[in-house]
Every structure is written in structure tokens, then in C-alpha cells.
Amino acid sequence: MKTVSAQLLTMIFLLLSQAASADIFRPAYLELSQTDAEHYSVLWRVPALPDNRRLAARVVFPGNVERAGESRSAIINNAWEERFEIVATGGLIDQQITIDGILGGATDVIVRVERMDGTTQLERLQPAEPVFTVTASPGPGEVAVAYFVLGVEHILGGIDHLLFVLALLLLVGNLRRLVITITAFTVAHSITLVCATLGWISLPGPPVEAVIALSIVFVAAEVIHEQQGRSSITARAPWIVAFGFGLLHGLGFAGALQEVGLPETAIPVALLMFNVGVEAGQLLFVAAVVIVGTLLGRVSRVPSSLVKRTVSYAIGSVAAFWTIERVTAFVQ
After folding, report:
1. Which of 70, 86, 109, 136 has its CA at a distance of 20 to 30 angstroms from the CA of residue 96?
2. How confident is the prediction for the chain on average, in pLDDT?
3. Distance CA 271, CA 182 (A)
């Protein structure tokens, strides 16, 4: 791992830093809760823009749907929430629902349809294709696939988590240490993901996100210290740090999962497959770094130690910005 190409690390950092915002996972959220054959309660949540302006996105229902009663709107946790009731003559099964106003933007939409039988339909809509079809009750296999894909998408879109893993890759010295370190991180965040999602532990999200950013600063600094010959327990046993901070990152994963909830009839399957999806995405990222880094390392003449130090400073700087921004957000 010491020979991982400095050019590769620079490329990865530049790609990741394009998404350097304080809130990495802030999709819009649509929840449809069925109350009888033709009636649904609707929750529509969109991230608030600066000055509490509302994102210009709306739900477009099919022609057989009418609103019932008045809608209720409020700003909650830096997001606009609207609640209302709808009546779908003949039901919503096999009907298409579209999100209008996110095309060309960067906001995905998480959709959750709660049926009367306790089953759940889960969708993640992207700006390029903001439409979905309401389906009948799914089987366990469909639930497993939906939550696996959600887990993969979350970790690959979670730039702060990937920067932490990248900093760990810079810190470890060989494949054996890498395997142990990643395993420790996996075990730790799996523990807190399960505990937080099932309600066994509870911590406020904003401070957790701030500490996650601070953990990236810490590991980036340890990479610099290791290059300067200042040995520490982090350099000698990075798996200890990976486990400790992995507990915090698991709380961050749980926050994302709690955004969409778990299907009442398949909680174990959904929770397991979300975690498996997170691990699959993480391993894809690690494999990409190792494989491409090995290939580029054979032709690179740039001193890897120099660029490694530069990339570490850059990672730490971005993470420090996140830390300040996130702390400022919840202390105001």
C-alpha cells in the first residue's frame, strides 16, 4: 500500500471534494401511508434552501387522485414538510407518480409507500428519472434487493465516509493491516447501525455528523505525523482507531436508514441487506483504489510520499471545513 500511486490519490480526492458540503445525504422524502383501499396520508419533505426558501419540487399524482382537506406545512430540521391526505379512486396500484422540479438538480428523492398489510415499497428517484410506479405488496426478495441497493448508494454517495476510508488507506502499510483495519471499521459501524436503527441507543444527528467530520481530520493528521516519523498508536494499530470512529460512522449510517424507515414485516431482512449494501459499496471503493493504484504505480514517477502528504493536508482541510460548518449549524 505504500506504493499506491500519488496520482491516483489526487484524482480520487479531487472527485470526492467536488461534493464537499456539510450535509452529504439530504434527499427529498415522499411517504405515502395507506389508511384504506383508496385513502393515503402523504408526507412530502424537501431540504430547505438558504434563507429557508423552499425547493421548487412537487409531487404529481395520476389523474384518479384528489386531495382531501387542507395541507399543513412547516420547517422542521432545516427541511420543508408538507402533510396532506389524498383519495385515489380505484387505488394506486400500477399508477405512476412523478416528482416535478428536481430535473437538472442534485437532489434525489426517497419514496416510501406503506401499505395496509404492513409491507413497504421503497424507491430512490434521481433527477434524470423522477418517476415510479406503485406496486403490489412485495416479497422478501424484493425488500432485500431494495435495501441492498440503498446501502450501496448511500456509502458511495457518502463522501465523508469515503474520505475517512481513504485516509485509513493512506495510513496502513500493507494488505494484512488493511484487511484488519477495514474489518474493525465494518464490525464497529455494524454494531451501532443495528443498535441505533432498532432504537436501543439514540444520539442527536448534527453532533454525530460533526464528530464524523472531526474523525477524518484526526486520521489525516495521523498520516502526516506518521510521515514525519512521529509514531503513535494510530500508526502502529490503525484498527483501534478504525473501530472507535467506526462506532460513530455507524450512527451516521443509521441516520440515513431512519430517513426511510424499515418495513414492519421484514425488519431483519431490510436491516441486514442495508448493512451488506454498505459493505459492498465500501469494498468496491477500496478495491478501486488498490487495483487502479497498483496499475498507475507502475508508471508513476511522482514521489508518492510528497503527494501523499499533500492529499492528506487536503483531506484534513475539507474535513475541518465540514467540522466547523456542522458545529455552527447546530449551535446557532
Report:
1. 70
2. 81
3. 20
- Using DSSP's 3-state secondary structure scheme, residue 265 falls into coil
Angle between helices 205-227 and 159-171 (to 10 degrees): 20
Which residue reads 492529499 in cell numbers?
311
- φ, ψ of residue 200 to 5 degrees: the values are -80, -30
DSSP 125-163: EBTTB-EEE--S---HHHHHHHHHHHHHHHHHH-HHHHH
From first CA to last CA, the distance across the chain in angstroms is: 43
Give the rounded distance of the alpha carbon of 8 from its chain centre.
24
Where in the chain is CATH 2.60.40?
28-138
The confidence score (pLDDT) of residue 161 equals 87
113 vs 137, residue with greater confidence: 113
Q: Encode burial over 230-267: b for 16+ CB neighbours within 10 A, e otherwise.
A: eeeebbeebbebbbebbbbbbbbbbbbbebbbbbebbe
Q: Is the torsion defined by CA of 151, 154, 160, 163 positive or negative?
A: positive
